[in-house]
Amino acid sequence: MRQATPPKTTAKKAAAEPPAPRRWRQGPITVGSLTGRLTQPALGKRGFAGAEILSHWATIVGPELSAFACPLEVKYPRGRNNGATLHLRVAHGAAATMLQMKLPDIIARINRFFGYEAVTQVQSAQGPMPKRALKSPPPAPLPAEKAAAVDSQVAGVALEPLRESLAKLGKTLQQRGR
C-alpha cells in the first residue's frame, strides 16, 4: 500500500506568499481606504473612472447646484478618455432650466477638477433625487434647574477637564431625555 506524500513546496512558492496579512503588519485599515477598491467595478461600468465625481460633486459644482442635480453616468467615446458626456438627474423643470443656464460653468468646473477636458457635454433627465439624511433640528436649551443638577453631580470630580467633559455629557443626555 502506498502512503500519501505531502505536497512539495518550492522556494519560489513560499517566497510568493506574504508573511502576514497587510492589516496585521500595518495596523487597522480604515473603511475609507477600502471604498475605492470596493466601488471601482460598479463605478467603472457606469463610466466613472473613480468615485471622485460622486464624492466631490457638491465641491465641484457648488452646494446650490448639487441640491437639485446629481451625476448618473459618464459616457466616453469609444477608445478615448476625454470628451465625455455627463448624464445628470435633476429634481424638476425649473432646476433643468437653471442647469442649462449654468452649463458652461459646470463643464469648466468639472474639467478643472480633473485637470483635463474630461467632459464636453451634459445631458439631464428629470427624476427623483436620491434621499438624503434629514438634519434634525437643534435641541431645545436645557432648563436652568436641570443644568444645575448635572453640575452638582459632577462637582466632586477633582480634575477640571474631566469635570467639564462629564458636565457636557450629562447636559447632552438630559437634552435628549435619557
What does this structure look like?
A hairpin with an 8-residue loop joins strand 1 (69-75) and strand 2 (84-90). This protein folds into 2 domains: 35-126, 2-Layer Sandwich (GMP Synthetase, Chain A, domain 3), CATH 3.30.300; 144-176, no CATH class. It is of the alpha+beta class and 178 residues long. The chain has helices at residues 11-16, 22-26, 31-45, 52-55, 57-61, 63-66, 93-101, 103-114, 144-153, 160-176, and strands at residues 69-75, 84-90, 119-126. The chain has 10 helices and 3 strands, in the order ααααααββααβαα. Strands 1-2-3 form a 3-stranded mixed beta sheet.
Please specify the SSE layout and strand pairing.
Elements: H1 11-16, H2 22-26, H3 31-45, H4 52-55, H5 57-61, H6 63-66, E1 69-75, E2 84-90, H7 93-101, H8 103-114, E3 119-126, H9 144-153, H10 160-176
Parallel strand pairs: 2-3
Antiparallel strand pairs: 1-2
Helix pairs in contact: 9-10
